[in-house]
Amino acid sequence: MKPNDPSIDPPGEGRLAFAPRDHPPIPRARIGVILANLGTPDGTDYRSMRRYLSEFLSDRRVIDYSPWFWQPLLQLVILSRRPFRSGKAYRGIWNNEADESPLLTTTRAQAAALARALEPLYGERVLVDFAMRYGNPSTLSVIRGLKERGCERILFFPLYPQYSAPTTATANDQAFRALMTMNWQPSIRTVPAYFDEPAYIEALAGSVERAYAGLSRRPDLLVTSYHGLPQRYLTEGDPYHCQCQKTTRLLRERLGFAPEEAVISFQSRFGPEEWLKPYTVEEVARLAGAGKRNIAIMAPAFSSDCVETLEEIREEIQHAFRAAGGETFTYIPCLNDDTAHIAMMSDIVRRELGGWT
To answer: Which segment of 23-32, 274-283, 311-320 scores lowest on mean pLDDT?
Structure first.
């Protein structure tokens, strides 16, 4: 068709260049950015918890036992009891005002803050949203929603600083599964692990320095507690353990701490097999027994405070420390929507969008 054909509308918002006048409106081409977090139950009741835990614990990236063995055990035994215990833990930290988990509240705040940080650079061309691997908003619904709003390219950002198969990989898997349901797929990129990103280390260090500045007595040491992983994952090639070690080393060096002033441990063990050691709940008790009565603890692998930090660390792990003779237990919150954390995300997004904008 010729450019001056009177049956053709000029290009503009919602119009393709040289499209017929009766052509359906087409959304303006945009780029989407999705912050992807672990997930959250919709409520603390038995059915909500069971639905969430079933999805989570049925993921072969998380529990890789044969389904013939695992599913009967999960559905008939574990999920008959665990939703009650998990529901109680969530009720202790639930955001009652918004009727949602703190993880959902914080991830929403992170997405909103990131959108504000990117707006001066990209205007309305880049849209920011967030999704959960398990629960809602689902990865599928968010990718479809961004595509309907004109996002022909999507940057998928798993909020896991250290890579592991049960976190980063399964988040990416879910994004790719979403594409499999779409006839018109957006192009997609995934953000790599950022465990040694200078801005990430700086943000962690800033949170430690602020916490220490508010204490009347300097802690004897800093415990960096990471989510655990079965030991065999390490021997099978998963880089998580090594990346956790490097994060703690870089943080210690940035803070100017001696090696004995910052130690590493692993929490949230599940099942009978051996996991990465030392286990945090045992390590803090050992430290207290060895005379380290005043400690600070943080969770660098978590981008947002959640049940593992707000309930497990501040309740179970703190109790183990005090029962062993510990005195001062200082929990340093996750980076959440801290300004330095959002600035780090913004820097990573700008770099990963290279060639797209």
So the answer is: 23-32
Do both 182 and 246 map to the same domain? no
Contact 174, 139 (CB under 8 A): yes
Residues 190 and 204 in one domain: no
Query: CA 271: distance to chain centroid?
Result: 22
Predicted TM-score (pTM) of the model is 0.91
Report CA torsion sign: 198, 203, 204, 208: positive
Residues in the chain: 357
How far, rounded to the nearest angstrom, does the alpha carbon of residue 294 sit from its chain's CA centroid?
Answer: 29
The boundaries of the domain holding residue 111 are 30-194+339-352
b/e string for 287-307 if b means 16 or more Cβ within 10 A?
A: bbeeebbbbbbbbbbbbbbbb
Q: 169 and 59, same structural domain?
A: yes
Kindly indicate the confidence band of residue 357, based on its pLDDT and cuts at 50, 70 and 90: confident
Distance CA 185, CA 322 (A): 54
- pLDDT, one tens digit per residue, over 216-257 is 999 999 999 999 999 999 999 999 999 999 999 999 999 999
Instruction: Specify if 293 maps to a domain.
Output: yes
Domain shared by 228 and 344, yes or no: no
Residues 155 and 204 in one domain: no
Hey, how many other C-beta atoms are within 10 angstroms of the C-beta on 50? 19
Say how far apart CA 115 and CA 109 lie, in whole Å: 10
